[in-house]
Write a structure and sequence with these properties.
Helix content is 48%, strand content 13%. Strand 9 and strand 10 form a beta hairpin. The protein has two domains: 214 residues, 3-Layer(aba) Sandwich (Rossmann fold), CATH 3.40.50; 147 residues, Up-down Bundle (Dehydroquinate synthase-like, alpha domain). The chain has 423 residues and is α/β, with parallel strands linked by helices. The strands form two sheets. An eight-stranded mixed sheet has the order 1-2-3-11-8-6-4-5, sandwiched between helices. The chain contains 16 helices and eleven strands.
Length: 423
C-alpha cells in the first residue's frame, strides 16, 4: 500500500494524521489482516472532524464515535445491509458498551422525499443522542436527513438546495458498506423529487466522524463494485476538472484516480481480494473529500437527468457518462486531463497536452468497456427522446464551476455518442 501522497498531505495546513498503535511503515506493508485502523482529522467545515480507516475498524466504532453508556442511538440503514449481518456487528458493539439503539432499515435505493420524511419522523420521535448511517450512499444520505431533522423543523423538502439548513443536527457518524459515493465525508444528501434528483448541500450535515472499514465491501457483487467504483472515479475526475479545484483537492483527486485505476479491475474480478477492497475504499473516501468544495461538473448533470428517468442506478449512470464528458472538456482543460492520464499510468512524456489528455479519455473508455458498462441504447433510452433529456439537463443543472458551458446542442451530441456507445 502506497501512503506517500497521504503522508505528504499531512504537512498541508489543517490536516493532521494520527496513527493508532501502528506506524506509517506498518500500514505501508499491509498484508491481509495485519493492518490496524488509523485516523486523520480535517479541520474544516466541509469535512468530518475525524476519518478512521482500517480493516475491522467497526470493532472500535464505540470508541471512535465517543459513545457512552446510557446514550441512545438511531441506526439508519437498508434491509440488504441488515440481512447481510453487518448491522449486528454494530449493535453488538453498542450492547457491550451499554448504549441503547433503534434500527431504521427502510432506506430505499435513490430515496424519494417520502422516504426522507419517514426517516425524519423516526428521528424526531425517538429522543436520540446520535445517528449512525450504515450502508451505501442512500443510507448515509438519509442518516444526514435524520440528524438535521431534529434541529430543523418542518418538511424536509424545504431544505433542498444550498445552505438552507440553519442548525447543526444530532452528532452524525457514517460507516460505508460500498466504495463509491463518498457520502461519509461530504456535505451533500441526495433525494429524488418526482423523477429529478435534488440535493441538500450544507456544512451542517457533514458527518462528525467517518469510519471506513474495507472488509464491509467484500460482499459487494461485481456489478455493484463496478458502479460504485466508477462513481468514485467520476467524483475524482470531475472535482479535478472543476474551476473551483485547488492544489489540495486536486492532489486528493489524483491519488483517488491512481488507486481506482490500479485496483478496480482486481476488485471486480476477485471481490475477496482485501487489499484491492482496501484501496478502493480509501479511493472512494478521498474522491468524496476532493469534490466537497470544488463540486462536480456536467458529467453528474447528465447522469442525474437520464438516470432517474430510466431507473439506472446512480453509480452506473455516472460511469456511462464519464468518458464522454471528459472528451467534452478536453479542449478547455487538456492539462488537467493530462494529469489524470498520468495518474492512470499512461505514458504522457513529451506529448502535447491535448494528446496527453486524450489518453485519459481513452483509458476511462477502455475501462468502462472492459467492465461491461452499457450504452444509453442498452438501458432502453429511446433515441428520439435525447433532445428532451438534453433540454432537461441544461435547464435543471447549472454548473458555474464548469470549465466549459454546456449548451442544449452540446448535450445532444454527448447523449448521441452515449447512445451509440462510441467516442
Amino acid at each position: 500500500m502506497n501512503l506517500l501522497v497521504l503522508k505528504d498531505i499531512c504537512y498541508i495546513k489543517d490536516l493532521v494524521i494520527d496513527p493508532i498503535e501502528t506506524s506509517l511503515r506498518d500500514v505501508a506493508s499491509m498484508r491481509g489482516d495485519l493492518i490496524l485502523p488509523y485516523s486523520f482529522s480535517l479541520l474544516t467545515t466541509y469535512s468530518p472532524k475525524k476519518i478512521v480507516v482500517g480493516l475491522d475498524a467497526v470493532d472500535v466504532c464505540v470508541q471512535e464515535f465517543e459513545l457512552k453508556a446510557g446514550m441512545k442511538v438511531l441506526i439508519v440503514t437498508d434491509k440488504g445491509v441488515q440481512e447481510a449481518g453487518i448491522v449486528k456487528r454494530i449493535t453488538d458493539e453498542l450492547e457491550d458498551a451499554d448504549v441503547s439503539f433503534d434500527v431504521y432499515d427502510g432506506v430505499e435505493a435513490d430515496p424519494k422525499l417520502s422516504n426522507a420524511e419517514e426517516v425524519a419522523e423516526k428521528a424526531r420521535g425517538g429522543n436520540y443522542d446520535a445517528v449512525i448511517g450504515l450502508g451505501g450512499g442512500s443510507s448515509m444520505d438519509m442518516a444526514k436527513v435524520a440528524s438535521l431533522s431534529v434541529s430543523n423543523p418542518g418538511r424536509i423538502e424545504v431544505y433542498v438546495g444550498v445552505d438552507t439548513v440553519k442548525h447543526k443536527g444530532l452528532p452524525l457518524y457514517c460507516i460505508p458498506t460500498t466504495a463509491g459515493t463518498g457520502s461519509e465525508v461530504t456535505r451533500v444528501a441526495v433525494v429524488t423529487v418526482g423523477k429529478v434528483k435534488r440535493a441538500i448541500v450544507s456544512s451542517k450535515i457533514v458527518p462528525d466522524v467517518a469510519l471506513v472499514d474495507p472488509k464491509l465491501t467484500v460482499s459487494m457483487p461485481p456489478k455493484v463494485t463496478v458502479g460504485s467504483g466508477l462513481d468514485a472515479l467520476s467524483h475524482a475526475v470531475e472535482a479535478i476538472l472543476s474551476l473551483d479545484a485547488n492544489p489540495m483537492t486536486i492532489a486528493l483527486g489524483l491519488e483517488a484516480v491512481r488507486l481506482i485505476s490500479e485496483n478496480l479491475r482486481v476488485a471486480y474480478y476477485d471481490g475477496r481480494n482485501v487489499e484491492a477492497r482496501y484501496h478502493m475504499s480509501l479511493a472512494a473516501t478521498m474522491a468524496g473529500l476532493s469534490f466537497n468544495g470544488p463540486g462536480l461538473v456536467h458529467g453528474h448533470s447528465i447522469a442525474q437527468t437520464f438516470g432517474p428517468l430510466y431507473g439506472v442506478p446512480h453509480g452506473l449512470s455516472c460511469a456511462m457518462t464519464l468518458p464522454y464528458i471528459m472528451e467534452f472538456y478536453l479542449p478547455a482543460v487538456p492539462e488537467r486531463l493530462a494529469w489524470i492520464a498520468e495518474a492512470m499510468g499512461e505514458d504522457v512524456y513529451g506529448l502535447p497536452l491535448r494528446e496527453a489528455g486524450r489518453l485519459a479519455v481513452e483509458a476511462v473508455y477502455e475501462l468502462c468497456v472492459e467492465l461491461d458498462v452499457p450504452s444509453l441504447k442498452d438501458v432502453g433510452v429511446e433515441k428520439e427522446r435525447i433532445p428532451e433529456i438534453a433540454e432537461l439537463c441544461v435547464r435543471e443543472w447549472v454548473r458555474p464551476n464548469s470549465p466549459r458551458l454546456l449548451t442544449r446542442e452540446d448535450a445532444i451530441k454527448i447523449l448521441e455518442r452515449m447512445w451509440e456507445g462510441e467516442l
